[in-house]
Amino acid sequence: MSKRRKILALIVLKAALFAGPALAADDPVVLKDLTAVIALQGQPCGQVVAATKQGDNDYIASCQDGNRYRVFVNQGRVVVQKQ
Q1: Are 61 and 51 in contact (CB under 8 A)?
Q2: How crowded is residue 46: how many other Cβ atoms within 10 Å of its Cβ?
Q3: Sheet holding 58-63, edge to edge
Q4: Distance of alpha carbon 47 from its chain centroid, rounded?
Q5: What pTM did the predictor assign?
Q6: Could you write out the DSSP letters of every residue in 22-64?
Q7: Which of 13, 7, 29 is nearest to 69 (CA)?
Q8: So where are the chain's domains?
Q9: CA-to-CA distance for 3 and 7, rounded, in angstroms?
Q10: Is the pLDDT of residue 1 over 70?
Q11: What values do phi and psi take at 26, rounded to 5?
């Protein structure tokens, strides 16, 4: 993955995570941002249909194609792990 895509993914995820504590995990904006981050990491998903917030900068995203991913920030880097 190119350096630009990694940086863009980090920016998108941080924007979603720091948008405000009142945001629910199933907020359409958060779902859209998680969809973008997963796609930029090159993982199959289609669209994120549900998300559960695990903690600060840590989500479990469920995709319309049945895949589930943990999306989190580790040492300033966005990580997408298939569950």
Answers
A1: yes
A2: 13
A3: 48-55, 58-63, 68-74, 77-82
A4: 11
A5: 0.70
A6: T--TT-HHHHHHHHHHHHHTT---S-EEEEEEEETTEEEEEET
A7: 13
A8: 3-82
A9: 6
A10: no
A11: -90, 15
